[in-house]
């Protein structure tokens, strides 16, 4: 048995013991690089965001499907916006009285109202198309 005055020989810990044994009072300078810090009152567990909050487990295929859907919606909204713009221009000509057979006051007022409505529709479709474009 060793006396109190003799130094004790300490065994060097193995790498495996860092993961399998209970933590000792001594900490190794490299162990903090291997394991994440434990949660505590001052250091709670981190919250991680999912790729898609509505479908967090959709995976790579689901993300690809969403991109294809967004691309299709972008094309559809762009076409609808261009259609609304063309209709708006036709209604502007009607409001100016430049359409033969539709130059009465009521026809012109109707053309002006339709032009305003088509302008709003055009802006709505362009906004939706832009949102789909950014989410591709």
Can you characterise this structure?
The protein has about 140 residues and is mainly alpha-helical. The chain has a domain at about 60-130. The protein has four helices and no strands. The chain has helices at about 15-20, 30-35, 60-95, 105-135. The N and C termini lie far apart (about 75 Å).
Largest sheet: none
The averaged pLDDT comes out at 78
Give the N-terminus to C-terminus distance in angstroms.
Answer: 74 Å
**Total helix count?**
4
Low-pLDDT parts are: none
Q: What coarse outline follows from CA principal-axis ratios?
A: rod-shaped
Q: Kindly provide the radius of gyration, computed on alpha-carbon positions and rounded to a whole number of angstroms.
A: 35 Å
How much helical structure, as a percent, in the residues?
55-70%
Q: Give the oligomeric state of the chains in this entry, treating copies of one chain as homo and distinct chains as hetero.
A: single chain
Q: Helix/strand/pairing class, anyone?
A: mainly alpha
Features:
rod-shaped; mainly alpha; single chain; 4 helices; 136 residues
Could you outline the blueprint of secondary structure elements for this entry?
Layout: H1 15-20, H2 31-34, H3 59-96, H4 105-134
Helix pairs in contact: 3-4
What is the structure about, briefly put?
With 136 residues, this protein is mostly helical. Helix content is 57%, strand content 0%.
């Amino acid at each position: 048995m060793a006396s109190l005055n003799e130094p004790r020989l300490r065994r060097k810990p193995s790498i495996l013991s860092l993961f399998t044994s209970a933590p000792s009072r001594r900490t190794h300078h490299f162990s903090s690089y291997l394991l994440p810090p434990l949660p505590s009152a001052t250091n709670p567990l981190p919250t991680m965001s999912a790729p898609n909050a509505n479908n967090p487990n959709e995976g790579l295929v689901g993300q690809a499907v969403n991109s294809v859907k967004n691309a299709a919606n972008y094309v559809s909204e762009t076409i609808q916006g261009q259609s609304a713009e063309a209709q708006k221009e036709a209604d502007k000509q009607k409001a100016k009285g430049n359409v033969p057979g539709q130059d009465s006051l009521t026809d012109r007022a109707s053309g002006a109202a339709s032009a305003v409505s088509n302008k709003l529709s055009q802006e709505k479709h362009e906004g939706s198309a832009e949102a789909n474009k950014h989410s591709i």
